[in-house]
Amino acid sequence: QKEVEQDPGPLSVPEGAIVSLNCTYSNSAFQYFMWYRQYSRKGPELLMYTYSSGNKEDGRFTAQVDKSSKYISLFIRDSQPSDSATYLCAILASGGSNYKLTFGKGTLLTVNP
Amino acid sequence: SAVISQKPSRDICQRGTSLTIQCQVDSQVTMMFWYRQQPGQSLTLIATANQGSEATYESGFVIDKFPISRPNLTFSTLTVSNMSPEDSSIYLCSVGRATNYGYTFGSGTRLTVV
């Protein structure tokens, strides 16, 4: 079992839709949870990161973490064509010298006008 | 967040040659990492670049193939040595601080080996 599983999609939605992106993880030592957005031919850009279970909101984006289920989600409200990109979940175990991120494969999202 | 300049942005290289990729950060950072991103695959960590000491390599990556330098807290290089077509990939530099785990990425180097 891979440490982080993410459905690669592709996912296609109409403009204005609510988008739900999800990852599961297997290692309970993971404590920090991030979502990155990557446009074509660009490097990943950090969207949000959170430490605890629960929701964290930033504008149209909401990150949700359920540590009991080892499940994380990113919701995009009122999706826009400019949101079309690959979304990567990334998870970090803390402690000692371990500061390495483990990434999902990414979900390719297309928002159609 | 830190601003990263990664060079070159792309290159086409002959097999058997080497390419050195540079990563320059606009501020001092604690941690610098090198990743590889292959189509349809997760970002894979190659190594952690340690300032003033040898890099720490992940399983499957060796220093002879991917030598890394980090002479100071704002600069690092990754060399892809004795390249083969299997090395064709995107290589990414990433930086972070111990107080903030929101790591920043460079724009990547798209390498094609022919």
Summary of the model, kept short:
Chain A has 113 residues and is an all-beta fold. Chain A has no helices and 11 strands.
Task: Name some characteristics of this structure.
heterodimer, A: 113 residues, mainly beta, 6-stranded mixed sheet, B: 114 residues, 4-stranded antiparallel sheet, 0% helix
Average residue pLDDT of chain A:
90
Share of β-strand residues of chain A: over 45%
> What does the main sheet of chain B amount to?
7 strands, mixed
Q: What portion of residues of chain B belong to β-strands? A: over 45%
Class of secondary structure makeup of chain A: mainly beta
Helix content of chain A: under 10%
**Helix and strand pattern of chain B:** EEEEEEEEEEE
Give helix % range of chain B: under 10%
Considering residues with a beta carbon less than 8 A from a beta carbon on another chain, report the largest interface and each chain's count: A-B, 24 and 24 residues
The best one-word shape of chain A is: globular
**Overall mean pLDDT of chain B:** 92
List low-pLDDT spans of chain A.
none
Order of helices and strands of chain A: EEEEEEEEEEE
Total helices of chain A: the number is: 0
Q: What does this protein structure show overall?
A:
The complex is a heterodimer of chains A (113) and B (114). Chain A is mostly beta strands and 113 residues long. Chain A contains no helices and 11 strands. In chain A, strand 7 and strand 8 form a beta hairpin. The mean pLDDT of chain A is 90. With 114 residues, chain B is mainly beta. Chain B has strands at 4-7, 10-13, 19-25, 31-37, 43-49, 56-57, 68-72, 75-80, 89-97, 100-105, 109-113. The relative contact order of chain B is 0.34. Chains A and B meet through strand 4, strand 5, strand 9 and strand 10 of A and strand 5, strand 9 and strand 10 of B.
